[in-house]
Design goal:
The structure holds two protein chains of two kinds. By secondary structure, chain A is an alpha+beta fold. Chain A has helices at residues 3-13, 21-50, 73-80, 114-120, 122-125, 141-147, 177-180, 212-225, 239-279, 281-289, 294-329, 354-380, 383-387, and strands spanning 59-62, 85-100, 103-112, 136-140, 154-159, 162-172, 184-187, 201-206, 232-236, 333-335, 345-347. By secondary structure, chain B is of the alpha/beta class. Chain B is 30% helix and 30% strand. In chain B, helix 4 (122-131) packs across helix 5 (147-159) and helix 5 (147-159) packs parallel to helix 6 (177-194). Chain B starts with a strand and ends in a 6-residue tail after the last strand. Classes of the chains: A alpha+beta, B alpha/beta.
Chain lengths: 390, 233
């Protein structure tokens, strides 16, 4: 490769004037899409990593037989003091009748330890605790509408043998309308305190840095010592695991987009080069007539493809940063919710070098690949035919 | 005795046009001496261009042999042929065939940059441009030049690697008479000053008359091979 080959290639990229913009635009948009979507995903990942919304602990413990008490005060305290346990959150499934004014309804929900829930999920459960320790509840939207309950109203009801009353702290939308129709979450305090016989699941959050497997093993020992060796440890989740799961789903989307882009770039550059090869047939024949070999001419096309990738990438990169900044300036764009999140989320653009690198590798690699077809055609043509002298 | 630089030995060239076999050249034998300024004449389809193409290594004969400087030209592979085209011969086209994205200087220089072993000499480029009278146009692109100027660039390009033989396929056919005449004077001057062998084809009797040797072809065969008017006593 010599300077003149580079000059030739560089000038050939723009030799067709306005038409040169077609392959350039395709490369540009390919880079733009990869960098922009990558940046938006990155924003999503970063946001999730900063504040994963978790409604469950990393270790979920349930009784071997549903409905059978599996934890008592002594065991509960022992579990709370286990090395590596950060939060121990008990839950009890509740159902009963709720009343407000002259209206009443069946409900199905749960009793929780408000402090533990709030510690696990500060954003969603902060309302459950208050300075005056007043019992507060969360109620499903449709149930609240049916009863005519508003936030701040007091409700009362019966669950099993216990009566309760609580102030509605929040009307919530859950994962389904059916659930909304009956959902009620109240703190154990509104039932007069923790009733260990009602607890049907324990959610354990492991301290940062502790190994969930080791903590689980210690908890199992504690259960065994408390006479409940058959407690079921069924589920391990972690913020990292959650983010990774989201990454996998969105990563698959990105991979699909990359495949579509790769195919588009391949065919567009191939078509552009084939067209160019046809238009430059005589010129290529001339170059061969004074000694340029087909591989040498193929090299020029390869360098052209490099320039196309470089220019397209450069413009695409700059444009993606500009659009990304604009998206951030306008407050983000609405995206479909990630798994376990019910509502659409607004995301912005976070620059991450991996996406420009990915975009460049994609357009550069595909560009080079698409020149092979051209080189093969060049090898098959004879000079007289190329010069149009046959 | 003059050294033979180019020798055609019973050369034939057949083309297939559909199912019809066209004999572009039939059993042509010809020797071209070093420093000759020869014209190939004949009607269209007589085989002039084919003879030039075979001598310049642009095409392969279907029969016979072509020797360039005593070596069989078509025995080497495609890469070898490319080297021969680059170093041993020069070709001037009727339609100039300059590379539009390169300027005049780069067009002339390009053949000298194709192989690392070929001596790169910028001064030689400018010397040739001076010689063909367009040194002042060195930075212009081909589309900014007249036909005559373009052909001068093509001539300088053909000479850049000091070839033994320069082939010219109707070099003045796309030019007006006055420009064509100046181009022929230039070729004669180059033939005299560099001792380069020229073999050109033409229809034009005035152009033909400038040759020291005139080879006439008809139906792919040499029908006469005579000294040109300027060589006659």
């Amino acid at each position: 490769m010599t300077v003149i080959d580079v000059k030739l290639a560089q000038r050939n990229v723009f030799r067709q004037g306005f038409r040169s913009l077609l392959p350039l635009s395709v490369v540009l948009f390919a880079c733009l899409i990869v960098i922009l979507i990558g940046g938006i995903y990155q924003y999503l990942f970063d946001t999730l990593e900063e504040g994963v919304i978790r409604a469950e602990g990393q270790i979920w413990i349930t009784p071997a037989e549903k409905g059978r008490p599996f934890v008592d005060r002594g065991l509960f305290q022992s579990l709370g003091g286990t090395d590596g346990v950060s939060i121990l959150s008990p839950r009890a499934t509740l159902s009963g009748i709720i009343g407000f004014g002259e209206k009443s309804s069946l409900f199905s929900g749960r009793a929780v330890d408000a402090d533990a829930e709030a510690a696990m999920d500060p954003e969603n459960n902060d309302v459950l605790i208050s300075a005056d320790r007043e019992p507060k509840a969360k109620i499903g939207k449709l149930l609240a509408e049916g009863l005519g309950v508003a936030e701040g109203d007091w409700i009362s009801g019966i669950a099993g043998d216990d009566g309760f009353s609580a102030r509605i702290a929040r009307i919530v939308t859950t994962e389904s309308e059916e659930n909304d129709r009956f959902f009620l979450e109240i703190p154990f305090s509104s039932l007069g305190g923790m009733n260990y016989d009602l607890i049907d699941s324990l959610h354990v959050t492991v301290k940062p840095g502790a190994n969930p497997e080791s903590v689980a093993a210690r908890l199992k020992n504690a259960f065994a010592a408390g006479g409940h060796a058959d407690a079921v440890f069924t589920r391990y989740t972690s913020p990292e695991g959650y983010v990774n799961a989201v990454r996998t789903i969105y990563g698959n989307n990105l991979a699909f987009i990359l495949i579509v882009i790769a195919i588009t770039v391949f065919f567009t550059i191939s078509a552009a080069f084939t067209l160019s090869l046809t238009e430059r047939t005589k010129e290529l024949g001339t170059m061969r007539s004074f000694g340029a070999s087909p591989s040498r001419l193929g090299l020029i096309f390869q360098i052209e493809s490099c320039f196309l990738s470089l220019y397209g990438f450069g413009f695409g990169f700059a444009l993606s940063l500009a659009i990304g900044s604009l998206v951030n300036l306008l407050g983000g764009i609405e995206m479909p919710p990630p798994p376990t999140v019910a509502e659409a989320i607004h995301v912005g653009f976070h620059f991450h070098p991996v996406y420009p690198a990915l975009a460049f590798v994609l357009v550069f690699g595909i560009g080079q690949l698409s020149t092979f077809a051209v080189t093969r055609r060049l090898n098959r043509m004879n000079i007289i035919g190329q010069l149009g002298l046959d | 005795m003059s050294e033979i630089v180019l020798r055609y030995e019973a050369v034939s060239k057949e083309y297939l046009l559909g199912e019809t076999v066209i004999n572009a050249l039939s059993d042509v034998s010809l020797a071209v001496n070093h420093g000759e300024f020869s014209a190939l004449v004949g009607p269209s389809g007589s085989g002039k261009s084919t003879l030039l193409h075979l001598g310049a290594g642009l095409d392969r004969p279907t029969g016979g042999r072509v020797h360039l400087l005593g070596k069989r030209l078509h025995d080497v592979g495609e890469k070898g042929m490319a080297r021969v085209r680059n170093r041993e011969v020069g070709f001037i086209f009727q339609t100039f065939n300059l590379i539009p994205v390169l300027n005049v200087r780069e067009n002339v220089e390009y053949p000298s940059l194709l192989y690392p072993e070929v001596k790169k000499n910028r001064a030689r480029v400018m010397e040739l441009l001076e010689k063909v009278g367009i040194a002042d146009q060195a930075d212009k692109r081909p589309h900014m030049l007249s036909g005559g100027q373009r052909q001068r660039v093509a001539i300088a390009r053909a000479l850049i690697n000091d070839p033994n033989v320069v082939f010219a396929d109707e070099p003045t056919a796309n030019l007006d008479h006055r420009t064509g005449d100046s181009i022929m004077r230039l070729l004669e001057e180059l033939n005299r000053s560099f001792g380069t062998t020229f073999l050109y084809s033409t229809h034009d009797e005035k152009i033909m008359a400038r040759a020291k040797r005139i080879i006439s072809l008809e139906d792919g065969k040499i029908v006469s091979d005579t000294a040109g008017p300027e060589s006659r006593p």
